[in-house]
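Q: Protein A?
A:
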Amino acid sequence: MLVIKLGALGDFVLAQGPFNAIRMHHPGAHITLLTTPPYAAMAQASSYFDVVWTHGRPPKRDLAGMWRLIRSLRGGRFDRVYDLQTSDRSGFYRNFIRHAEWSGIAPGCSHPHANPERSRMHTVDRQAEQLAMAGILQVPAADLSWLQADLTRFNLPAAASYVLLVPGGSAHRPAKRWPVQFYGELAARLQGRGLQVLMLGTGEEHALADAVEVLCPAAVNFVDRTSFPEIVALARAAAGAIGNDTGPMHLIAAAGCPSVVLFSGASDPALCAPQGANVTILRREPLAALAPEEVASHLNLR
């Protein structure tokens, strides 16, 4: 059996419930996940898959990589495929596993997600309906309780005395980013309430953390210092979190951390909002119209 989920991070987190549902529906099956390198360790740490392949998205000009993928698909002898990526790319892969049952939207597949409104559904609802049409009727919420990390090296303050900020996001979609000076003002406001501020992100977002530190020198820069399990562990112990519509906020929300997620008109929370027990969505177009004091007022600290 094959499951296809290539990314991105937010989508991979939202697929945790479907992953679990597939495993529960096929408890004795040998299940392979086709994904990409960033998600391999997380997938391997779960109990959902027996094998994790990371060569699911070879570059267009990588003919050797594409041939390796084709050989893997043909040689896998899969009897069923759950295509949770449902992209043109993943649908194309059906050409190399024609004998298998296929859940997805590839032309001619055996278990199509036959809802013309599927593109207007939230990812979680869309995938649950897709699986229902393939015979899997129960899809639980994402559960990251199995994802653990030792946080000793971070020398954290006492539990629930810090707030996570995620000021970054997709570099090629700047409209999804709340102004960094507002994050600085927010950090200073939180610091004034006796809360430590920890900033998360990836390597190229160091400049954003530096800008926040100008207005709040006590803020701690964890950019490019945390793995996915460490982000989840930090979220479990945090008083709350605030961030843009970006992958780490999906991990934080799914971990149960009280979260405020900021959306502009560049993305629609009805389709892709992070899911969790305590998530507040604030949407404004442009995001600069959303004031720091309003954002702070919506943070339900624990």
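Q: Protein B?
A:
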Amino acid sequence: MGNVSDYLKWRGDLDFIQSPFNEIDNLILAQIAYVDLADIVPGPGSEEGITLSEASDTFFDIHDEKEIRKNKSFISKAPFLMREAAGTKRFGSLILTNYVDYVDGGKEEQFSAFHIRLDSRTTYITFRGTDDTLVGWKEDFNMSFLSPVPSQKDALKYIDTTVSRPEGKLILGGHSKGGNLAVYAAVNVRPSIKKRIIAVYSNDGPGFDKDFINKEDYISILPKIKSIVPYGSVVGMLLDHGEDYEVVKSSQSGLMQHDAMSWCVMGAEFEKEKNLSVKSRKLNKALSSWIENLTYEQRAEFVDTLFALVSASGAKNLSQISTDRFRSMNAVIKSFRALDKSERTMILKILASLNGEIGRAYKNGE
């Protein structure tokens, strides 16, 4: 079975005129959004751009490759994918512009996006998914009770302020939360921009609440949404979806299938599965039922308390927790014991309800 790297070797010598933009190209650009291109790609308001080849060379000039490889999360692969793509005729000359990237702990927001000009008439706007920061992950959890979250608001604002030309085709996309932001922005953007959008790619991106997917603006954009999820998807099946989704094979198992670099490629398409795995369907059924049985207030209190416990370790990102698990766990346990009785009871009760939903889903089958 092939992968994205195999695709670049096979299709990299053809430009987008010779071989039209496809779903694999979309995923490559969505993954490059995870690369820290601050001070490399010009920001909004600048009339200048930089080619992907130039951006890649500059990135590796100022970042130590050994340090990059120390990061064991899936986003650590993004710089190397960028370098591989930058070395091809297909991607090397693409122009990158309008780069923004920030994490705001006070607003509980992590947001990054930029434009990638495919040709004189078409631009792909890529939104970064959840990175390694705890702030980013907490914002994802906040989606279960808050709509819109800050990054969704900023995704819409970003499109409104950076799409200045009155003509040209637009493709929006992202992986994980980035896919959610792409859909949110496409649904809510002003009509003059919306009519220029030809596709919206959500690569294993979570959904929305029921009110959102019943909106007329959402329903009108449905034909343009291309939702892609791996065989064992969990993240991409969270909350509600109105669109159909394409299920693809992965070389990984379980939650690790969220790593889009593991998705299997055949030619210019992903290798397809007929349906999600039985395990994925059961787990998603349990998670959906669990979330629906909690009020918005309960969800908010649970998320705030849970992340307060995790933050007690002093970690700012998931990698710091995983590299010092013993110290982190001790800090979390100590913080849990310091909670008042009602907070401890709430956490244990909600976790018990999740365990019960999972047990029922697996016992009852489909």
